Amino acid sequence: MLKVAWTPAYAHPLPEGHRFPMDKYTLLPEQLLYEGTIQADSIFHPSPVNEKYILLTHDAHYWHRLKNLDLTPAEIRKTGFPLSPQLVHREITIAQGTVQAALYALEYGIAMNIAGGTHHAFTDRGEGFCLLNDIAIAANYLLYHHLATQVLVIDLDVHQGNGTAQIFRDNPAVFTFSMHGASNYPLHKEQSDLDVALPDFTDDRAYLQALNTHLPKIVDTVQPDFVFFQSGVDVLATDKLGKLSLSMFGCKERDRTVLSFCKENKIPVAVSMGGGYSQRIADIIEAHANTYRLAQEIYF
């Protein structure tokens, strides 16, 4: 069974300008249930992650200030969201969703989080709609409990996974692979174990060629026993914040490539949602839904 973490969006209204990115977290599960891609018993609602596991990844001083809503105005502006107790609660719940998805992936081969992919969260700060790094927290959870020995992060969001790269910069047990737009946010890139920076307007053919060139080499070299896949759909040509030119078909083939490769190599994979900011919400939902459809097709 495909297990899917669902953390409902805010329990209180967001200010104008902040609601749009959150709509997909309600609409996507509704679409997946409506079309029968998942069933109601596929969904689990995570509880907040234990503070112990946050502190395996994040600086204690940063976490203390975050949970006490004591970030500076400049720090809050960098996250892109107004800071609130509800936001912090959502972040720690998303993190637990990815932890639980990782545990389900060990059992079923794959599991998903309808949220997460918060790859701009650093050890000691948040940026770009990311306060805590769910993938890093889950990876460190697996390593701490000896459930994995070599983790591979495949980050295919249009934006570099700069926070994840910084967190694992000196940790050989986690290999970070980011394939992203060269000229896109963040302006200053961190150094992943492998960065593939793509020029503006990269199309389906060039993108998939690059992915199919690098992914087998990484797996052969790294020999991971667990994969975290950041499956942001802001690679679409229709995306307002992306600069690449993938079609809906190309984005789906990207996901097919990653999921098929994990299945064929018997590597459990936990998938986090990542970004997606196309003008039409229907394009965002369709692209994200394709990832779940492929998981069902390939694994079940």
UniProtKB/TrEMBL annotation:
- Give the signal peptide range: none
Q: Which CDD domains match?
A: HDAC_classIV
Q: Which SUPFAM superfamilies match?
A: Arginase/deacetylase
Which residue range or ranges hold the Histone deacetylase domain? 18-288
Pfam families xref list = Hist_deacetyl
Keyword list, A-Z:
Hydrolase
InterPro entries membership: HDAC_classIV, HDACs, His_deacetylse_dom, His_deacetylse_dom_sf, Ureohydrolase_dom_sf
Similarity annotation? Belongs to the histone deacetylase family.
Q: Provide the protein name.
A: Histone deacetylase
Task: Give the source species.
Answer: Rhodocytophaga aerolata
Q: What is the lineage of its organism?
A: Bacteria, Pseudomonadati, Bacteroidota, Cytophagia, Cytophagales
